[in-house]
Amino acid sequence: MTKKILIPLFILFLLQSCSWITDFYVLNSSKSPIVITFKQPKSPETTPYLEKLKAKSLELYQKMKPTPCPLEKDIKNGKYPEICDEDFKNCRTSNPTEYKFDREECSLELTLESNQAVKLFSICCSYTGVIDEKEDIKNISQSAEGDTISLIIKSFASTTQYKGIELMRAFKKQKRQDMF
Predict the structure, then answer these.
(1) With contact defined as beta carbons under 8 Å apart, do 71 and 80 qualify?
(2) Quick one: which of 151, 153, 143 has its CA closest to 112?
(3) Does residue 44 belong to any structural domain of this protein?
(4) Among candidates 28, 22, 38, which has minimal Cα distance to 167?
């Protein structure tokens, strides 16, 4: 009897221990402030399932309907944007006066002082890096101009823009023990 219980629990433990979250930060290691503009693609406001639910129960639909802009949900919950020091420690959620949020564009603009970092987003559970380069080119060419993730970094001297998969390639991998 105990083997029947222990084996599934052990398997569940193994599955849980293989999960991880990959966080993506921008660190200002320069001596001057930089302006970060981060944009995420909007999600569909409704689905066929939600439309059926709306017809049956408007109250439940209101509770379940997605927020088209993923940034908005995290901002409302007080989880975003998160500013950290250069060691990715001593993190805090920014005050609304420290950033500009555009719900229609699903974008966020903020200024990072020297040796500050901002957590842009996280990917849960199975992110291991960017996919095959040929597949990337196909995905970039198929994505519409406005529906791809993007990042613009403006400094005193230059402006750098990343879109789609090129944004993912711009991040430098850092092991957790290197960060903490």
Answers:
(1) yes
(2) 153
(3) yes
(4) 38
